Amino acid sequence: MAERAYSSTELMICVAARLMEDGTGAFIGTGIPMLAAALAKRLYAPNLVPIFEFGGIGASLEDLPLGVGDIRTFHKALMAAGICDVMETATRGLIEYGFLGGAQIDPYGNLNSTVIGDHDRPKVRLPGSGGANDVGSLCWRTIAIMKHDKRRFVEKVDFLTTPGYLDGPGARERAGLPAGTGPYRVVSDLALLGYDDKTKRMKLLAVNPGVTVEQVVENTGFELIIPKKVGQNEPPTREELAALREEIDPHRLYI
Amino acid sequence: MAERAYSSTELMICVAARLMEDGTGAFIGTGIPMLAAALAKRLYAPNLVPIFEFGGIGASLEDLPLGVGDIRTFHKALMAAGICDVMETATRGLIEYGFLGGAQIDPYGNLNSTVIGDHDRPKVRLPGSGGANDVGSLCWRTIAIMKHDKRRFVEKVDFLTTPGYLDGPGARERAGLPAGTGPYRVVSDLALLGYDDKTKRMKLLAVNPGVTVEQVVENTGFELIIPKKVGQNEPPTREELAALREEIDPHRLYI
Amino acid sequence: MEVLEEGRGELIQPPDVEGFRRWLRENKSMALKDKLMSEHEAVERFVHDGDYIGFELYGTVRCPMSISREIVRQGKKRLRLAGQGLNELDLLIAAGLVEKLDLTYIGYEVYGLSDILRRAAEGGKVKIVEWSNAAMAWRFKAAALGVPFIPVRSMLGTDTFRYSAAKAARCPFTGLKLTLLPALILDVGIIHVHRADRYGNCQIDGISGFAIEMARASKRLIISAEEIIPTEEIRRYPERTVIPYFLVDAVVHAPFGSHPGDMAYMYDRDAEHLKEFLEAAKTEEGTRAYLKKYVYDIKDHQEYLQLIGEERLAELGRKVKGR
Amino acid sequence: MEVLEEGRGELIQPPDVEGFRRWLRENKSMALKDKLMSEHEAVERFVHDGDYIGFELYGTVRCPMSISREIVRQGKKRLRLAGQGLNELDLLIAAGLVEKLDLTYIGYEVYGLSDILRRAAEGGKVKIVEWSNAAMAWRFKAAALGVPFIPVRSMLGTDTFRYSAAKAARCPFTGLKLTLLPALILDVGIIHVHRADRYGNCQIDGISGFAIEMARASKRLIISAEEIIPTEEIRRYPERTVIPYFLVDAVVHAPFGSHPGDMAYMYDRDAEHLKEFLEAAKTEEGTRAYLKKYVYDIKDHQEYLQLIGEERLAELGRKVKGR
What we know:
Order of helices and strands of chain C: EHHEHEHEHEHEHEEEEHEHEHHHH
CATH superfamily of chain C: Glutaconate Coenzyme A-transferase
Structural class of chain C: alpha/beta
Oligomer: heterotetramer
Largest sheet of chain A: 8 strands, mixed
Shape of chain C: globular
Radius of gyration of chain A: 18 Å
Largest interface: A-C, 60 and 61 residues
Strand order of the largest sheet of chain A: 2-1-5-10-11-12-13-14
Order of helices and strands of chain A: HEHEEEHEEEEEHEHEEEHEH
Number of strands of chain C: 12
Helix content of chain A: 10-25%
Shape of chain A: globular
């Protein structure tokens, strides 16, 4: 019964953590990515290296940072550099993963974190790109973490802050973005999603425990590719929850 | 009589040292420029800052360096940076003076330190540009230090390594070099030379003690502008010689 | 150079590298001059109405908050800002001093959005040109290089590009399409560091953010420092000098100068104060009251620290881990 | 991008940034792997015939001389080199291993010209493309930026430009004419540092030369270090890491690794040895004898140091000033 008592945030953290490949570097943003990276390092990818955009590389993550320039992003780190060095490392193709968020995502994984409505007189002004555009441009594989509803999963983003596959196959390369890069996964509170190799459109991979394929479709504002075989995400394990609650975020800053 | 007993190197050092303006930065190359800067700092321009191309800025110069990356170029310095930072500082216009040398100089102050003869099968291969092209491109005022003879002061350099005024007024700006920069003085073992404001051609300013204008003309391989009034360089003073011999280069590495 | 595409955003500060060269030659000196002064004097002398200003790092991390508050106090107007920030930009926007922003991000990460920026943007009170984080840092880097642009591989294909003032062109060596970012030369750069000497030689502990690039991209440069150290210490570890004195116009001694933000190995951020600010920022009245209490009614940084209280500051010092 | 002018020099190593990205992804890892190995193993595994190699800083200052000698000893052939150097390049040229040079300078400053380069160039034995010092460093910087070129303001109007592989173009923001330097991506970079851990995190004292840029411009990277230190020391001063481990392929422990050059705060250059070398370099026979004595007849760096002698090395240590 303990296995059922988890929050959707905890589940998203676990799903994201299980995606990480050992021996790679990952751009970490504030929030869920920090916890996912810390969890992955403990259980699945001990050689995953957290990289923070303002310069922290290989921090211990003993304490959870509260922001991407925070003291904890470089406490006992292997290097405390600056933003240019980190972003140039990404330009050279040395950073495998990037986590992204946003207010809107479209079928090609393009993200909006700038405005809702018109740019010059917006309905809602959002924080802006920050490092998201760079992470989405330069990392090999990006993982978006989003709440899943029709206002967020939209046919067309109001403002294309961060590049996904733009308008389809080959579009990134035509735009000049590094070849072979792009969106990899979307971790939502309902499901895990990926992208169709040919069309580069979003595709359902697995639903979360207790969630139906129909629920996912209903909460998505565009046509989602539903493969014949849809997987099932495992709920957080005892081990995952213990690590998260007792070691990674004991003060419950995020979970 | 002590005043007469000096070498032509010592005189060149003194003439160069007297040119320096206080509160400026000067690119220092190996040899005479190091001694001229050290002498200027002691007697004429206490706030002159020696800058070495591989990163040393504001070294004490307690001991004379033997090269531009030498430990002594940053011993007790204010900053030990790298070559890019130094050269970018020059690109931004923060370095007033640069010292240059070479195997040949032409009437426009263009310098050759690359080859004598054809580039691909040279008669004599010289060391190459090193930082000279950058110093000659980016500093506001460059000072060339040369032995004075017809083989060195030539109508046309075999290879234009480092830009002087190129082929005359406005040529530097047309080439894209920063506006208002260029050759300022030539310190030779016979004379001090400058450039005519209008034609940008080399002009005699002052002869060294015991040297006649005719001697200078005879030893110059191109037509030199001889103004009506030619000055006379003062011989090294007792004070200058004492500083040079007792404090700056007591082990006679260079003098 | 054939331009394939260009952003429609205003080029708020054109990359006049030749003007920058002339300005630096006329206004900077390599002489070691004592530049230690009060924040009042630094801001009065070196920040002018209409200036284009940049702050480093950002408003909860090693940020020159004491100088930011002084700018608000002196009411410098019609400012244009390099907007990679949080709290420092919000204070200036809230005080109505900002006209235009080259913006990359303004938000409070774990604490959510910035209501002050949101109100100003939605009300059309500030003009905003979009950039990415790295793009802003690289724009400083181009200025530091002394060249008018730098080619990069970010921003392509997006509205971030379309609402910026970047251009895209093809590389003549490889045929690759690249973003060309215009150099960003600041009228004033403001940077908070761990240590500086009286001449302005600076050391920073931990990440350098974009301090190195921004210092070199500034016509005038104000440094605030937790600690003023003797020049002998600088000379002893010359590789630790990240900003050399000749770039600096003013050195202000500002212990806890980043409060309510943090300072690596010295003190942690003041989460309570930030929450108080964010609560206040929800309404215009709340914001005005916050500014009155913590900026306008306060004479200087010293008085600000008294208001925060010694006990609280000591606690922030205890909360941070050492090396 | 309209090209106004271009140098006639061969572009010895084209700036294939996409290939560089792929290569790094396939060959580098962020895992902390022990990379400590002998100079023999490092050179055998990571230097190949035909490689384009760069050395930092230059052959009398913090230069990887022990690795350079090992390359000569293993006789790696048809090398192409980034020629900002002295002694290390001369050894390779003298051994007949060098085919092409991107050259900025080869000479011995206070000691005069390099007879070895002179003979090779005058005899047409090496192909030389010309650059300035800063241009070479900026070419590494462009590679470090991950872009195929960088605009600069050097080299314009000169034969140095005309005999280089640079191009000139007009800035689309300002109309200024600029030099575009192609990025220089090395097959192998070789750097000598003061301290490294077993994984390759490096610290350098004093000037950084062009180590930061070159490390980032290298496909394979060999580090030699005066001292191997525990990773805890690295983690304690993370701002001192100038080269992070994930760029590094091999770490070689090499005390006095820069001999006959110097190492800041540790030992001075060996002027006597340099004079001996320069005297030998005057003739081909002399050069051969020098190589035999100090390179070919020597098994490794340890044996080389024995040949130089403890007393002499200790003396060089005493001659250098501390901080």
